[in-house]
Amino acid sequence: MEFVKLNTGGTDWRDAYHHILSLTWPAFAALAIGFFIVVNVAFALAYLAREGCIAEMPPHSFAGAFFFSVETLATVGYGHMHPTTTYGHVVVTLEIMTGMFWTAVITGLIFVRFARPMARILFTDCMTVSPVDGVPTLTFRVANLRHQPLAEARFRLVFHRDEPTLEGDMIRRFYDLKLNVPSIITFPAVLTLRHAMDETSPVRDMTPESLKASDARFMASVVCTDTVIQSSLQSHVGYLASDLQFGERFVEVYTESPDGRLFVDYARFNDTEPAPGVAKTGAGWNAK
């Protein structure tokens, strides 16, 4: 769901830092290289504006001015070319200062991008609805893709849809759905989360048709702690009404070896199968 924000006021220049950190690595590399080229082109043109300000620089040579700018910005200083006039010294000084700020900023940005924890948490592509202990149950899975377990994981499932008010208006109502495992001390691999659609559930009477008519959606989230870097992680996913598989259940992903080890097959993470005791109909599903 895309939100277009209007009349939010002026853009704060500090928002650029957040925007740069949110870029993908290819976009970040393109931005850094582009800025580096633009700065050196600008200083190269400044050197060409006053002929003779740089000793031994070929006259009217943009390539010579550009590469001298690159060497100056990086404070390499090969010594072959050097400023000879006050104008040249001023431009070189400004470029060295720019290079110092550039090095500090780009180093900080790269460090933050590498140091920022990434939540390698996976949700199933769909949700299933099938009986568990005789009660229709909404089910989805969440997986930890890292080899180290995550700690103090907390799970939430929110259901929201359009509902009419007594005054005849349509508003969006949100409901927290109770999960069988709202939290767990250690989260090592794959966990199946369920919500019983009993008489207390806001979704006890849902059907594919009613979900579509009310533009119903689900939001699932997990918040946990990375035990390696002791940092908080968060991940979430949204499900549409079309993402619900009625009369299906997820296949088993765990197998136990004779020595007691548990194997988890992530290739079957999204796989479903018909639930026993359930008959699919044109209107959705019914228990046999």
Give an account of the 3D structure:
The protein folds into 2 domains: 15-115, Helix Hairpins; 121-287, Immunoglobulin-like (Sandwich). The protein is built from 5 helices and 16 strands. The chain is elongated, with a radius of gyration of 30 Å. The relative contact order is 0.11. Strand 8 (217-226) and strand 9 form a beta hairpin. Strands 1, 2, 3, 7 and 10 form a 5-stranded mixed beta sheet that branches. Strands 4, 5, 6, 8 and 9 form a 5-stranded antiparallel beta sheet that branches. A two-stranded antiparallel sheet has the order 11-14. It has helices spanning 15-21, 25-49, 62-73, 86-115, 208-213; strands spanning 121-123, 127-132, 135-144, 150-164, 170-176, 183-187, 190-196, 217-226, 231-240, 244-246, 248-250, 254-256, 262-264, 272-274, 278-281, 284-287. The protein is an alpha+beta fold and 288 residues long. Helix content is 28%, strand content 33%. Helix 2 packs across helix 3 (62-73) and helix 2 packs antiparallel against helix 4 (86-115).
Number of strands: 16
What's the domain count?
Answer: 2
The secondary-structure class comes to: alpha+beta
Mean pLDDT: 88
Distance between the termini: 37 Å
Under CATH, the homologous superfamily of the largest domain reads: G protein-activated inward rectifier potassium channel 1
> What coarse outline follows from CA principal-axis ratios?
elongated
Give the ordered list of helices and strands: HHHHEEEEEEEHEEEEEEEEE
Estimate the strand proportion.
25-35%
Mind describing the biggest β-sheet? 5 strands, mixed
Low-confidence stretches are none
Secondary structure tally, helices:
5
CATH fold naming of the largest domain:
Immunoglobulin-like
Supply the CATH class of the largest domain.
Mainly Beta
Radius of gyration: 30 Å
- CATH architecture tag of the largest domain: Sandwich
Task: Name the helicity range.
Answer: 25-40%
